[in-house]
Amino acid sequence: MSDKILEIKHLKKYFALKNRLVVKAVDDVSLELNRGETLGLVGESGSGKSTIAYVLVGMYEATEGEILYKGGDLAKAGLYRTLKQKGEIQIVFQDPGSSLNPKRTIRKSLMVPLQVHDRGLSKPQMDARVEELLEAVGLPVEFADKYPRAMGGGERQLISVARALATHPSLVILDEPTSALDVSIQAKVISKLVTLQKELMLSYLFITHDLSLMRNVADRVAILYLGRLCEQAPTADFFEKPLHPYTRMLLSSIPVATSEEEELKPAKIISTGEIPSPVNVPPGCAFHQRCKDMLPVCSAERPVMREVSPGHQVCCHLYNAN
Ligand SMILES: Nc1ncnc2c1ncn2[C@@H]1O[C@H](COP(=O)(O)OP(=O)(O)OP(=O)(O)O)[C@@H](O)[C@H]1O
Ligand SMILES: [Mg+2]
């Protein structure tokens, strides 16, 4: 059996705007996810992270490309996936406040996916499953009869995780699951996510704009800029030898705690220029106008992704030496 659970090939998601303009939110992204691993997908606001997530769970139709999952192409199925396919890929959204219905008790919210995906369950069986889900995320079973407003942000987010687990998924997309939470609570939610992953053999696509968070959580990291991937590498390799000028810029602005980390950090690179609009992506490399290492070719030709060491890929003309 292949180690790969998901293979995204040349995925594009374009949005047509009224005035005949097109937003290239995701533009030729290829990614792979292995069973039981965490891939950190990192990018600034507007880089297309959520759009990738929404296409993967079937909320948006892909414009082009393939999403290979367990032998089938989900991109071909578009929005018409089987119930089983829908259950197997789940998502946890950024804001636990708005993703839970405030008028429903936690029990009712957790029962919704059970009613859809596990139709044969009796009422007592559903209650038992609700309790099991609460226990899985480390919350007391009494929480079943609470309303979301009576809980803290971290607890609400753990409920969202429980709801995602209700359908026995194999792949969970975490779309900035802790960025709305206080730092102390963030750590608690992350540690629960890590435990659950091991217990349930889950694969995670962990979306974040917080690169430093990925150091301890991700097996591999992929960097997205204006809908395109810049670099992809195993986490340790990534932090030790960042290659893409954009990655180096991002890493140089992360605060570090120890002198060892300070030594590894690239020299401070001052970010220049604005992030262009995805309606008007510059020709060639999307980053060239902000890049301090720009070559003449960078404004003319779009670079291709190359593997420079095992598992370490970079999409940059600087590494195009033959
Ligand atoms: N339904 C839509 N119609 C038109 N444009 C959209 C739509 N959804 C997203 N976009 C645009 O696509 C680009 C990528 O958006 P997306 O929400 O995927 O970014 P993101 O990386 O998740 O950002 P954030 O960190 O702010 O959540 C943005 O320019 C956004 O304005
Ligand atoms: Mg987003």
By CATH reckoning, the class of the largest domain would read: Alpha Beta
CATH fold-level label of the largest domain = Rossmann fold
User: How far apart, in Å, are the first and last alpha carbons?
Assistant: 35 Å
Oligomer: single chain
Number of helices: 12
Number of strands: 12
Description:
- The protein is α/β, with parallel strands linked by helices and 322 residues long.
- The protein folds into two domains: 215 residues, P-loop containing nucleotide triphosphate hydrolases (Rossmann fold), CATH 3.40.50.300; 73 residues, no CATH class.
- The protein has an eight-stranded mixed beta sheet, with helices on both faces.
- The longest helix has 18 residues.
- Bound molecules: adenosine-5'-triphosphate (ATP) and magnesium ion.
- Adenosine-5'-triphosphate (ATP) binds next to β2 and α1.
Short summary:
Helices cover 33% and strands 23% of the residues.
Keywords:
322 residues; globular; 33% helix; binds adenosine-5'-triphosphate; 2 domains; Rossmann fold; binds magnesium ion; alpha/beta; 4-stranded antiparallel beta sheet; 8-stranded mixed beta sheet
Topology:
Elements: E1 4-16, E2 22-34, E3 38-43, H1 49-56, E4 64-69, E5 72-73, H2 74-77, H3 83-88, E6 89-92, H4 96-99, H5 106-117, H6 123-136, H7 153-165, E7 171-175, H8 183-200, E8 203-208, H9 211-217, E9 220-225, E10 228-234, H10 235-240, H11 245-252, H12 259-264, E11 306-309, E12 312-314
Parallel strand pairs: 3-8, 3-9, 6-7, 7-8
Antiparallel strand pairs: 1-2, 1-4, 4-5, 9-10, 10-12, 11-12
Helix pairs in contact: 5-6, 5-7, 7-8
The structure holds adenosine-5'-triphosphate and magnesium ion (MG).
Adenosine-5'-triphosphate binds at residues 15, 23, 25, 43, 45-51, 209, 278.
